[in-house]
From TrEMBL:
Domain (EamA) ranges: 9-137, 146-283
Highest taxon in the source lineage: Bacteria
Alphabetized Pfam families for the sequence: EamA
UniProtKB keywords: Membrane, Transmembrane, Transmembrane helix
Transmembrane helix recorded as keyword: yes
Cross-referenced InterPro entries: EamA_dom, EmrE-like
Annotated Gene Ontology cellular component terms: membrane
Name of this chain's protein: Predicted permease, DMT superfamily
Keyword Transmembrane helix tagged: yes
Coiled coil feature spans: none
PANTHER family noted in UniProt: ACYL-MALONYL CONDENSING ENZYME-RELATED (PTHR22911), MOBA-LIKE NTP TRANSFERASE DOMAIN-CONTAINING PROTEIN (PTHR22911:SF79)
Stretches that traverse the bilayer: 12-31, 37-54, 66-87, 93-112, 119-137, 143-163, 175-198, 210-231, 238-257, 269-286
Length: 297
């Protein structure tokens, strides 16, 4: 059991590192955000289908559930679209720093979705996040569009997480993910079809871009998801949540190493990013302690 726990922790850090690398790939791939996301989902869906076939896993679920999963896929498609769009118009560091506000948006949206009272310490942490964002805005005026897109991506990520939290209570995580990706693919394909986006240029992809897209669609999407589900068998949700908070740290460090000067920001930017990350970690710690106290009562 201990060996499984150690292996799972190592696997989790590898998965988070891979997720941090997703932003790097978004910068390396020369495609615009829309075709990039479309190809990512296509590759992920094909990969999952192959895995389902290999494992002889069924894709059956109730029609009502499948409809809800497909609809939720629109949210994840928009999240990825705004995420990669933010990278294209700003840089990896700005995007990942702002994406860390997902926990802040969750604290606002959860009471609405689950009809519970707003918690005082979440409001306090939210105030710190707003101050940190103000600091980032003040020293990154040339990246305003990217900041706004990244904040939109963070908000959509929060919505998506809350929706999936409800779905996961009744259905398999792999089934949910598959149909959500199909839903995202359908909505993007319909938009491209009616907007005339399926042009010759759209399907003209360089060999290098194909390589990075395959890495993005398989390892960073399909396999990373399967791994994240596996580790939940051996690691507590609190540990998983804290480790996932390292994603922007890994991503920003990788961006500085790979892209160098284009990713170097002012000291005030890093102070703001650190404040956001700190509130995310503190929020997780406070929540975990409260759960432990409730369990002891």
């Amino acid at each position: 059991m201990l060996a499984d726990n150690v292996k799972s922790n190592l696997l989790l850090h590898l998965i988070v590192f891979v997720w941090g690398f997703t932003a790097i790939l978004g910068n390396l791939i020369t495609l615009d955000a829309l075709p990039l996301v479309w190809y990512r989902i296509v590759i992920a869906v094909i990969t999952l289908l192959l895995l389902f076939a290999f494992k002889r896993q069924t894709l059956k679920d109730s029609k009502s559930n499948i409809t809800r999963f497909l609809a939720a896929g629109i949210v994840i498609a928009l999240h990825w679209l705004t995420f990669f769009w933010a990278i294209k118009v700003s840089n990896v560091s700005v995007t990942l720093a702002c994406l860390s506000t997902g926990a802040f948006f969750t604290s606002i949206l959860e009471p609405i979705f689950y009809k519970r009272k707003i918690i005082a310490y979440e409001v306090f942490f939210g105030f710190i996040v707003v101050c940190a964002l103000g600091l980032i805005f003040s020293v990154s005026t040339e990246y305003v569009e990217g900041i706004l897109l990244a904040l939109s991506a963070a908000c959509l990520s929060a919505v998506f997480s809350i929706i999936n939290g409800k779905f996961a209570q009744h259905s398999s995580a792999s089934i949910i993910t598959f149909y959500e990706m199909v839903g995202g693919l359908l909505i993007l394909s319909l938009y491209l079809l009616f907007s005339g986006g399926f042009t010759v240029e759209f399907f003209t992809v360089t060999t290098t871009d194909w390589l990075w897209l395959l890495v993005l669609g398989t390892f960073c999407t399909a396999f990373a998801f399967i791994g994240s589900v596996y580790v939940m068998k051996y690691i507590t949700p609190f540990t998983v949540m804290l480790t996932i908070n390292l994603e922007p740290v890994y991503g920003i460090l990788l961006a500085i190493l790979i892209f160098k000067d284009s990713e170097k920001m002012s000291p005030e930017f890093y102070v703001g990013a650190l404040l956001i990350l700190s509130t995310v970690v503190l929020n997780a710690i406070v929540k975990n302690r409260k759960k432990i106290k409730v369990a002891k009562i």
